[in-house]
Write a structure and sequence with these properties.
The protein has 424 residues and is α/β, with parallel strands linked by helices. It is built from 17 helices and twelve strands. Helix 15 packs across helix 17 (410-423). It binds pyridoxal-5'-phosphate. Pyridoxal-5'-phosphate binds at residues 82-84, 108, 110-111, 152, 156, 181, 183, 203, 205-206, 215, 217.
């Protein structure tokens, strides 16, 4: 029986048997007991299912992975200790030194650092594209070493909406997958697999947790991509010597990608979240559908209020008809555009800072996407490592205030903004 997403948020991933705990238990154990060496040996050869060591898997974490896989409509998921770790493993799983990938430039600042600095040091080159480039300009960046295309459903903080179908077609024309960071939309507002994306990643730190309690990430595999087509992914289609010659596409079929990520990369990098973190994430997920609805509703009201305020220079929210991405938002985010808005206060950087310092309900924090309304000035905080050119490419001006609209009463949020704008 397949349930709808609201039911999955509440119930997927954990179904207790007779007399078992109603609530997902926290399995606080590093290791697992087996009756025979033979059984344990089979686990090491990937011939049997089961947990062996909590660096690779844990029953509490597995239940949350199943819930998220169900929500996204994937064949499997792998939780990580952060969104950064999810992006790192998602890319390393299908790239090697000497290869490259293509990414939309309008993405999270931490991801830009990971791609342009750290992956570069490992010999993996990122090539940035923008939606306004011509097909010829984009094609010129692909070669026989290009291994994936990357973008964010709703870019943080530029709020550009990704034309998922277009980039899925582009990637598939080159026999490579489209990897989509779905953090801001969550599967409640958009399920990228339905539009052709192959792999989804999340920073679960944001809406999925929703309470600002645990940093985490997740990778989800659609199971739809055929890794065998073009001999581009030998790591998936040729024997893995570290497992006596296992071939992931042969032994694990549709789950090849996510199995390799776990048994090879998670084994070697060790970034599985602790059981307690997965438990907290699961509590957050239980109300995700309700929260996303309210975040979206409140954010649209605030965006409309800001648009009609003469102290505000501009407002960017994909749910506004004035947004350049309104048509894309109607297609990919029909139930709401999530809770993050950006805008400029007239008077530039100084006015923006004065406005932020005058807010009472909304707090200045290095965070977005939790239940409490908060604000951030990316140019002086999260994105300060970027050069001016990278800032422009990421769609961030010096006057940009990013506001994450919470699930409080929207009248209180607007009253707070109003009094702070009067100070600015
Ligand atoms: C926050 C964020 C990340 C990084 O996630 P962490 O959990 O902070 O490591 C990646 N992508 C997007 C879109 C984000 O908002």
């Amino acid at each position: 029986m397949s349930y709808k997403k609201e039911t999955q948020c509440v119930q997927a991933g954990y179904t207790p048997g007779n007399g078992e705990p109603r609530v997902l238990p926290i399995y606080q154990s590093t290791t697992y007991k087996y009756d025979s060496s033979e059984h344990l040996g089979k686990l090491f050869d990937l011939e049997a299912d089961g947990h062996m060591y909590s660096r690779i898997s844990n029953p509490t974490v597995s239940c949350v992975e199943e819930k998220i896989a169900a929500l996204e409509g994937g064949v499997g998921a792998l939780c990580t200790t952060s969104g950064q770790a999810a992006n790192l493993l998602a890319i390393l799983n299908i790239t090697s030194s000497g290869e490259n990938f293509v990414s939309l430039s309008s993405i999270y600042g931490g991801t830009i650092n990971l791609f342009a600095v750290t992956l570069k040091r490992l010999g993996i080159e990122v090539r940035f594209i923008t939606p306004d480039m011509t097909d010829e300009q984009v094609e010129a960046l692909f070669d026989d070493k290009t291994r994936l295309v990357f973008g964010e459903t709703i870019a943080n903080p530029a709020l550009d909406v990704l034309d998922i179908e277009k980039y899925a077609k582009l990637a598939h024309a080159h026999n490579i997958p489209l990897v989509v960071d779905n953090t801001f939309a969550t599967p409640v507002l958009c399920r990228p697999f339905e539009f052709g994306a192959d792999i989804v990643v999340h920073s679960t730190t944001k809406y999925m947790d929703g309470q600002a309690t645990v940093v985490g990430g997740v990778i989800v595999d659609s199971g739809n991509f055929d890794w065998t087509v073009d001999n581009k992914f030998p790591g998936l289609t040729e024997p893995d010597e570290s497992y006596h010659g296992v071939v992931y596409t042969k032994n694990f079929g549709k789950a090849a990608y996510i199995t390799k990520a776990r048994v090879q990369l998670m084994r070697d990098f060790g970034v599985l979240p602790p059981a307690i973190s997965a438990f907290l994430l699961n509590s957050g997920l239980t109300t995700l559908h309700l929260r996303m609805e309210r975040h979206s509703e409140n954010a649209l009201k605030v965006a409309k209020y800001l648009e009609n305020n003469d102290k505000v220079a501009w407002v960017n929210y994909p749910g506004l008809e004035s947004s350049k991405d309104y048509a894309l938002a109607q297609k990919y985010l029909p139930d709401g555009c999530s809770g993050v808005i950006s805008f400029g206060v007239k008077g530039g950087r100084d006015a923006a800072v004065k406005f932020m310092d005058s807010l009472k309900l909304a707090a200045i924090v290095v965070h977005v996407a939790d239940a409490r309304t908060c604000v951030l000035h990316p140019a002086s905080t999260t994105h300060r490592q970027l050069t001016d050119e990278q800032l422009v490419a990421a769609g961030i001006g010096a006057d940009l205030v990013r506001m994450s609209i919470g699930i409080e009463n929207v009248d209180d949020i607007i009253a707070d903004i109003e009094q702070a704008l009067c100070q600015a």
